[in-house]
Amino acid sequence: LDSLLKETLILNKRMAASSDETAAITLLKRAVELDSSNRYTEAVVCYKEGIQLFLTVVQQIQDKTKKTKYREKATEYLERCEVLDAKIRKDKEAGKFHEHLKIQAGSIGHSYESLFGRFLDEDVKSIDIDDPYIRSHHQIVNFLRCCELFVKKCTRLKQIKLMTT
User: Fold this and answer.
1) DSSP letter (8 states) at residue 15
2) How far is it, in rounded angstroms, from Cα 64 to Cα 9?
3) Average confidence (pLDDT) over 147-164
4) Helices and strands in the chain: count of H runs, count of E runs
5) How far apart, in whole angstroms, are the C-alpha atoms of residue 53 and residue 56?
6) CA distance 27 to 74
7) What span, in angstroms and rounded, lies between the C-alpha atoms of 73 and 83?
8) Which of 44, 46, 99, 152 has the smallest number of CB atoms closer than 10 Å to its CB?
9) Which of 3-12, 71-80, 132-141 has the highest mean pLDDT?
């Protein structure tokens, strides 16, 4: 993993700073960091999103040598993501639970209550949220609404931690 992180940092220096490139590199760096911290389910999400963006960038590269190098790097990330996916499946079978929902843009009926309500009760004392996308005013307002639900449902809640990048 250390070599994967080092190579990601090298790619960061080599690539131009377009928004897709920057976003892909940020997500992949975060994936490696989460992976190194044994936060596998979160790492897989970042790997998948980062790889998708990274491959979009690769398609735009004209230099064949550079394109080949970047495809090899994408393959390394994808292989690591697949290893983690297998580990997560094993953990689920062993009774550990994680759920990833993909909500289509423009779809309706997805309230915080319907998404998280069944997990929120008096046993919850702390909530850690890792969301690199909370930047705009409307995202902050949505986060606040989510926090209001947490406080309402979790009577013994002591803290809510938000990590952004």
Assistant:
1) S
2) 21
3) 94
4) 6, 2
5) 5
6) 13
7) 16
8) 99
9) 71-80
Q: How many CB atoms lie within 10 A of CB 95?
A: 6
Is the pLDDT reported for residue 32 higher than 80? yes
138 neighbors 144 (Cβ within 8 angstroms): no
Task: Look at the block and give the residue holding tokens 């090899």.
Answer: 72
Residue 44's CB is within 10 A of a number of other CB atoms, namely 23
SS3 per residue for 99-134: CCCCCCCCCCCCCHHHHHHHHCCCCCCEEEEECCCC
Give, as one character, the DSSP assignment of residue 118.
Answer: G
Q: Does this model's pTM top 0.70? A: no
Alpha helices in 61-162 (DSSP H): 64-93, 112-116, 137-153
Cα atoms in the 13 Å half-sphere on the side-chain side of 146: 18
Residues in a beta bridge with 129: 162
Q: DSSP code of 133? A: T
The CA distance from 161 to 117, in Å, is: 18
